[in-house]
Amino acid sequence: MRLTNFTRAFGDNVIISDLDLEIGKGEFVVLLGRSGSGKTTLLRTLAGLDDATGQSVRIPGSRAVVFQDARLLPWKKVWRNVALGLRGLTGLVRDKAERALHEVGLGHRLDAWPLTLSGGEAQRVALARALVREPELLLLDEPFSALDALTRLKMHELTLALWQAHRPAVLMVTHDVDEAIALADRVLVLDQGRIVTQERITAPRGERSDVARGLRQRLLSALGSGAEHASVIPFRQSHEAFA
Ligand SMILES: Nc1ncnc2c1ncn2[C@@H]1O[C@H](COP(=O)(O)OP(=O)(O)O)[C@@H](O)[C@H]1O
Ligand SMILES: [Mg+2]
Q1: What pTM does this model have?
Q2: Which terminal residue of the chain, N or C, has fewer Cβ atoms less than 10 Å from its own Cβ?
Q3: Predicted pLDDT at 53
Q4: H helix runs in the chain, sequence order
Q5: Closest ligand 1 atom to Cα of 142
Q6: What is the model's pLDDT at position 234?
Q7: Closest-lying ligand 1 atom to the alpha carbon of residue 43
Q8: Superkingdom, according to UniProt (predicted)?
Q9: Among candidate residues 4, 19, 37, 73, the one with its CA nearest the CA of residue 175
Q10: For ligand 1, atom 24, which residue shows the shortest CA distance?
Q11: CA of 36 to the centre of ligand 2 (A)
């Protein structure tokens, strides 16, 4: 996907200005930015949810979005939530949904009601619902920020496994620097509608502790927190600082 010279304003309020962004096939890009920096606005454009008439926006036809809350329909069973919008014979559609739910470790909850799921399970369903569309571009808007730390780590593993199996291009929004470092091929920092920092991470995932320290400082500093304190801010606090 590619945006060139992209600008988005609400009335006189310019949220994103002159932004160039390109994401390669199968690339995993994480977008960091403070609250209100325009992350969701950008993501909505890439999802095709916003009118981008007259702008240079190239996005693949098959896209899927996962938001911070799973947005499941409570009156539909889990598998029907995953199958939502899929066309075809009920049996085949159910098979597809079932396969996706197996992939996210919820093969045993096909007939469960959404309200009986934990937060982590609900996000797994949301991932399955995205996957079943076989998107070329997977958009994730702070998908794990409402989950506890342990569940979040499990979701990171799952996200990477799904990405490796299906290889969509990913744009994931987060305000969690450690999440960005754990997952990304490339991290972007958005500030006042511009990309102010860009870091490519070549170290294999799982072997990033050596590069993480310097990287974390640079990213935190780009987020405007003052790098000199970055290394001593415990995870929870740094997490909240950008919430
Ligand atoms: N539909 C809208 N109408 C007017 N202003 C909006 C709209 N959507 C977002 N904004 C404004 O755009 C700015 C960026 O919002 P958003 O993209 O949601 O930020 P982020 O996701 O980085 O927290 C905010 O100041 C917000 O108030
Ligand atoms: Mg947002």
Answers
A1: 0.90
A2: C
A3: 87
A4: 39-46, 78-83, 90-103, 119-131, 149-166, 177-183, 209-222, 227-230, 235-241
A5: 21
A6: 41
A7: 17
A8: Bacteria
A9: 37
A10: 36
A11: 7
- Ligand 1: does its nearest atom lie under 6 Å from the Cβ of 8? no
Work out the pLDDT band at 225, boundaries 50, 70, 90. Answer: low
Ligand nearest to the CA of 31: 1
State whether residue 172 is helix, strand or coil: strand
Mean per-residue pLDDT over the chain, rounded:
90
Q: Say if ligand 1 is within 6 A of residue 193 CB.
A: no
For residue 33, which amino acid is it? G
State how far the Cα of 182 lies from the Cα of 179, in Å rounded to an integer.
Answer: 5
Tell me the CA–centroid distance for residue 32 and ligand 2, in Å.
10
Lowest-confidence region among 47-51, 151-155, 160-164, 230-234: 230-234
Strand order in the sheet with 2-10: 13-22, 2-10, 56-58
What DSSP character marks residue 118? -
Q: What is the biggest distance separating any 2 CA atoms in the chain, rounded to whole angstroms?
A: 59
